[in-house]
Every structure is written in C-alpha cells, then in structure tokens.
Amino acid sequence: MSRRTFFIDEGLGETRGGVLLDGRPERLLIQRDDDSSRLALGARLRARVRHVEPALAMAFLDLGEGAEATLSFKPELRPRQGEAVEVEIRTEPRLGKLASVRLIGPAQGAPALLAPPPALYDQLLHLAGEGEAITGRIARQLADEAEAEALEVIHPLPGGGTIAIEPTRALTAIDVDVGERKGNEAKRVTRQANLAALSVAARVLRLKGLGGLVVFDMAGRGHDGAALMAAARAAFNPDNPGVSIGPISRFGTIELTVPRRGRPVTESLTDASGRVSAGTLAQRLVRRLEAEALAAPGGRLSGSCAPAVAEAAKPCLALLAAKIGSRFEVKADPTLAWDKIEVHGR
Questions:
Q1: What is the DSSP secondary structure assignment for residue 213, as one 8-state letter?
Q2: Which region, left, alpha or beta, applies to residue 209 given φ > 0 means left and ψ of -120 to 50 means alpha?
Q3: Mean pLDDT over each residue of the chain, to the nearest integer
Q4: Domain limits of the chain?
Q5: Under CATH, which architecture does the 270-345 domain have?
C-alpha cells in the first residue's frame, strides 16, 4: 500500500513544502514573501467586474492591488460590468493565463481579500492524508531534491527505460522509451515499461504541477488497451475529481485531461526563457550561506554570483544578516555563469 509523508522547509523569504509518495517527491509547493495571496488557490475575495465578453461567456475581474482573474458564467447568470461579486480562486495563474474563480455570490464594496488561502501546513496535511511534518535539515534536503527533479525533463523508470515530459502551450507531451530495459521477450518488456511509465508520469506531473491535456506516446505496438487503461486510472486517481482518460489510439498514444489547480512549479522556479530564475538562484545562494554559517559559527563568509542574482538576493540577505550577523559579503561577478554560485569561508 502506498504511503505518503510530507515536509516543510522554512527558509528566508521562501517556504517550500512537499509530499512524498513511498519516499519519492510527489508534490512541491513554494511560497515566497513577494507572492500575492490574492491569487493563491482557495483565497476568497470581493472583486469588481471589469469587462464582460458575452460571446465567450467570460467576465474579467479586478481583484485589487493589480490582480486579475476570469469568471466563466452561464447565460442566465451573466454578471454586469461594474458590479461587485464574492469569489474564490479556483485555479492559480500560469504563463499567459489569468487565474480563474468560482462565483460565491453578490457583494458590496471595493475589491478586497476576504479570507486568505489555506495555510501551507493544512494544504500538505490534506494532500498527505495524515502524519506530522518533517522539518529541519532533512526537510531542506528533501525540498532540494524535489526541486531538482521538478526541473528535469528525462525521468528514469524502475527496471530501466525513461520518460521525457515536455509541456507546450497546448498540451504536455510524454514520450516513453524502453531504453536498455532487460528482458527476454520484447513485448513483455515493452508492456512493463509502459505500465511503469504511467505510474511515474502521474507522480512527476503532480510534482511539476502540470495539468490540462496530456498525451502519452507509448512504446512499441500491439498494446494491451485494457491493462493500460486500468493502470492509467489507478495512477491518476489522486488527481480526481476531473480526470478524463481516452483509449489508446491506433497511433499508440493515450490522451487524458488532468484538472489544473495550482501554478506549475516550473514557473515558480524558472523565468520566461525557461532557465532557472534569478529569484530561485538567489534562494540557493542564501541557503548555501546559511548552511556555511551554521557549519562555522563566528566565521566570515563570502559568496559570488551573477549580478542579477546578487540583486535579487538583497531582501533575503538582509534577513540573513538579521539572523547570523553581518559576517558575510556577496560579490556580483559578471564573469560567472548564470547559475554558478560560489560560497567560501575565510
């Protein structure tokens, strides 16, 4: 029987929490001090209808403080431009898409946050089902490992083979590769790889926070459709309600839809170009400095990184100085590679 546990790593300017499925990272939630709670899943707000598009059955809402969202409506419940409504965030914003909300009812007054989203601990406890949070150094290590896996494209399968997970604007494509998986019978080896791929992909998609249309390009030919459908239903059951799975096609592909809820983790960790963002690298720099400070109490530290990373790190470095004292310095070095971070004791 599968077992889930969860961890919380409280950093400076950032808290990372996650769920482990049989010891492997299944979820990663990241909250940074500069995130808007108005756009977080589960937040309740009073909003103002800014614009209505009857042809799309969609209204655009002003949530206050520059935050916006969309509301889908039935023709008989069409909102009026300028009216106030109470709503709850149903899906968080992602690249090129606004947050979406569900309507609670009419309201009075200017846009405002009425109730914050659930606390991170409560979210993780709900996802894990039970238990106490892992904290401290172990939690930090688990968060680092989850973050690293979330950023990978190629993921190994137990017993051999790999899957490649690549999101596009339209869908997420998953390619199954048998690779050097061992076995005497090719058809049996391929079948085992495909079944393993569904299980691993479901976990990793949850880790990455990816949803919407997902297309698997299964390995081999002459697939056992009934076995693949049963495995897909079991693998994606934790994502219900809202999962829809189609039968395997004559081209060897399986299509399914997974509900979108939170913002993809990769968007929290990377910039618009897809590389690890300055903010994420700044957090790594601060964690490295903090770890070195704990290892050498009273010692002086120095760090080097790209100029944009040093700039992004300033707010968290101020928090670090308040915690360990001003016994470190960070140099912005334009000759360093974008993701290169150096920390030394002196």
A1: E
A2: left
A3: 94
A4: 4-36+121-142, 42-115, 152-265, 270-345
A5: 3-Layer(aba) Sandwich (3.40)
